[in-house]
Each structure stands twice: as structure tokens, then as C-alpha cells.
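Worked example 3. Consider a protein that binds hypoxanthine.
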Amino acid sequence: MNNLKSKLEGRQPKVAIILGSALGMIADAVQDAIAIPYSELSGFPVPKISGHAGKLYLGKLGGKEVAVLAGRAHAYESGNAAVMRPALEQLKEAGIETLLLTNAAGSLKASMKPGSLMALTDHINCAGMNPLIGQHGDENFVSMTNAYDSDLRKAMLAAAKKEKIALKQGVYCWYSGPSFETPAEIRMMQIIGGTAVGMSTAPETILARRLGMKVVAVSTITNLAAGIKGASPSHEETKREGAKAAVNMQRLLIRFFKDMK
Ligand code: HPA
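Given these inputs, the predicted complex is written out as C-alpha cells:
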């Protein structure tokens, strides 16, 4: 069988982590790990772009059992905003209760520099897509209040404090990509209350809430967004700066799991 539940080998992770661009190294910190290629898990997307692996790791981080997805598919690869749905359904079926999402994002604030980490308080959907479009049934009218769980965010902030990492907080604007935003779009996102912009995470949060999972999310800020003085968003910069911020992200996550009840 190609479902995750049948491949757990007695492990019982309750939390799954999706690693964003250039954060793949965090998978190396998973102890006692078994790695399952996405190709062996039906419905898991085999990523096509560089900087994204395609493996699920089962093991321990900070002494707690986790499932780590190194690599995600993005809506811009196919136009399908629900591309992660089969994978999230499998996580749910395997007993996952909490989804920890990470991503690379551009900063909408000149003061939030590349290398910063930001916990998501909320998101704004600027992509004009929704992964639940086409689904039928009342369950799809999912509440998005407290979608980014405030208790989990508090625990993340506490973990950051212990590690002396300056974890910012803010609102993530989901942009479809794959082109970067125009400077005018960035000005709009600043006006409507955004703090950072990226091309993932929000659809996964919507799907996870639909499936009844709790969500906590952290961005690595890899660049200033288009049009901000000194900004030069590019995929190369995302990968380079993301890899640098990954060191702090790894420390943060290990502390978060160590202190998790
Ligand atoms: N815009 C959108 N997505 C991103 C950016 C950005 O500036 N940086 C990293 N991911």
C-alpha cells in the first residue's frame, strides 16, 4: 500500500512539518529517521523546481516524534491550489493533529531584514484562488478565525526567546507567483495590512483547517519585497538567504519541540 499510515513502522507523530524553500537541511536534524520518497506515497507531489526535495522523514526533533515533509508543491506549478490536499489527507489519516508550516517570504517592511524569522498571525489571500473551490458540503465553509493557532504561536515565541532569536510576528500575503510581485502590488499589500509575501502556506493552512488540524507557521525572510529600497527578489536570493536563516529556524524548531508538552 502506498499510504503513509501503512509505513509508520510503529511511529506515532502528532505533528507534521512542511519545510519551505532552502530549509531542506532541517531534515538532516531529524534523529532516528526513516525517509520515504514522495514517489512511494500516493498523492504526494513530486516537486519539480530546484531547492525543493521530495521526501518525507519520520523521526524525532527535540525528542518528539515528527513527520517532516522536505518539499512541497506550489499552486503556481499547475494552477491547482489544492495540490497538497492528498498529502494533507494522508497526514490526517496517519494521526497528525498539528501542521507546522515554514516558508521563504519577502518582507513588506524595510525594518524586517533578510535573515529574519516571522511567525504568522494571519494571512491575506491575494492569489484569487482557494483550495476548497469545487468541494461540496457545508464543512467547506471553514472558519479562518484563529487559523494560525494563538497558543501554538505563543509556544513558538517562548521557544524563540529561550534561544535568543528575534522572532517577529505578522500577516502573510499569499501571492500566486511564479513571477514576483510588481512594486505597485507590494504597495497594495503594505496598505491592506501585510507584513510579508510568499507563494505558499495559505492554501495549506486552509486545507489543514478544513481537515481539523491546528496550524502554526513561520517564515524565513529572504529578501525585501519588490520596490522597497535595496530589494532584488530572485529565486537565487531566496535560496541563498533562506539557507542562512535555516540555521536559526532549525534551532527554533528543536527548542519548540523540546519544550512541547
Ligand atoms: N515574493 C514572493 N515570494 C517570495 C519572495 C517575494 O519577495 N521571497 C521569497 N518568496
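Take a moment to read the result before moving on. Strands lie at 15-19, 31-37, 55-61, 64-70, 98-107, 117-125, 167-174, 196-198, 214-224. The pocket of hypoxanthine is lined by residues 104-106, 175, 180-181, 197-199, 222-223, 225, 233, 238 (CB under 6 Å).
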